[in-house]
Amino acid sequence: MKMPRHRCLFLALAAAASPAMAATDAPYAITIHAQADTAGSRIEALLVDEAIPLPATPAGTTVLAMPHVTSNVPTIAASVGELAARDDRGAVQLRYRDQGEGPARQREWFAERDIAGTLRFSYRAAMTEALAARGAAPPIELRSEEGAFSGAGATFLLHPTSGRHDIELHWDLSALGAGAHAVSSLQDRNARDVTMEALDSSYFMAGKIGLYPQAPDATGFFSAWQGNTPFDAEKLLTWTQRLRQHYQAFFAVPATPYGVFLRRNRVNPGGGMGMYNSFVVTYDDDRGNDPQQLELTLAHEMFHTFQPHMSSQYDGESLTDAWFNEGTAVFYQARLPFRYGMIDADAFLKDLNYTAARYYTNLLGNAPNGDVATRFWQDTRIRTLPYDRGFLYFVTVDDALRKASGGRKSLDDLILAMLHRRQPDKPLGLADWEALLRDNLGEDAVRQLHAMLDGAAPLPASDAFGPCFERISQPMRRYELGFAPAVLTESPRIVRDLIPGSAAAKAGVRNGDEITRPVGQDQLQGEQDGILTLQLLRDGKPLTVSYKPRGETVATWQWKRRQGVSDSTCSLPSTSHAQ
Question: What pTM does this model have?
Fold first, then answer.
């Protein structure tokens, strides 16, 4: 989910595991029927038909599962009850049971007799109307707007808990009239050897949508957007297509199919989320629609599809690994476009200063990495740490490598070395990174890594970003919501623990007020002059309160342009042989 700034958190959207389902020769067929209202102007729901080839499955065994919440987004699980189904032996009733508590709760379907062969069933997936019902969340809910719909498989596709299948995808858009199109992360309607985790993290978009190019190019690149964008979508996506070609050269990998989805986000626009062979990025009419910023969002998200991913678990990435996965993506999101001449020095400087300002004014900037997993969705100041602190840490590593090697090595070499360390049966872990640090910079670099993970603030050298930039100290104000941050993740959102004298209190916010509209903070946290607007309900009456969510002033590190240094020398060169 491109979170902070809203940089994406590249997460595997997986259901809890159960005994593996073996692959079979028959395809796993999915047909998605769009259902419109009587006027044909709005897509109300999807009717989903599935035919899943299964191995012999004993009675009582879970055959389908869906979490009630995935990445802080409610799914359709609660609305799907018993399912009438058929297998090779005839009719079978699929009953359900809920397992687990809280966000980990999931709904499982099972039969009271053995299942044999292909399981066929249908169900209705209704479009959601709620805006970020649980607070900060990626744009993956199944949503209908402007004659189209979009959403991630994790939120509306029932499937076995594990296994690999050839997916045969069919669309029925007849209810939407002429001019409707459909695209998905699977791209090929006969996608081969797809895991259930990949199906979960596949994105689907259909209806009255824009396409660029009209058909995937020779490398398999495609893009689609939902709604009338307040910027030139095709120009932005043409830029993205070019950058992807540079990424392929940097990582020395062959071209692979890849898609980009654009859709509106009325709560926290400007972010997105890395998906299976694709990513989704969001915008709105009045926020999150700066094309230059969206370019860097796209650069960040696309980097995730090439980079080495650290994982402390076998079934997907953990939030405790985000310092590596997100930190490197923030490091390269402006550096590579700058290196390739696709952004200028001013855009590069603006991006690094935004991240530095957000981190060095963060009251929780010294929180240990262990806090990230437990508090990620509760507090924007924790949620941004892996991105901001991770970025600044990798700047210090890059600088140390360049200076120790006389410019012959950089972070580029370590990132590519991490890729070469990947093994099919073992995820990359902290020990892999420690080994590379030890071999290239010595034991002291390993100690500095652990100090950062324990909460130490990285401070890049004045010249760490190249000869064009130098470090300065600048006073800035800390982000301060003014009341308990967890309020924004609760239902209902009732203000409590109001800080006396805070900007929120001075603006008129009171304990007991109900916040009726979700609030996006990740972008706002880095904007010194940003305004937070709360829609409140007090004593049954609605009211609106706006204020700058800022507290004490602290000295903050920033960088500025050096005088008399040519732009042609600004970008630090690559040191990898792939370039």
Answer: 0.80
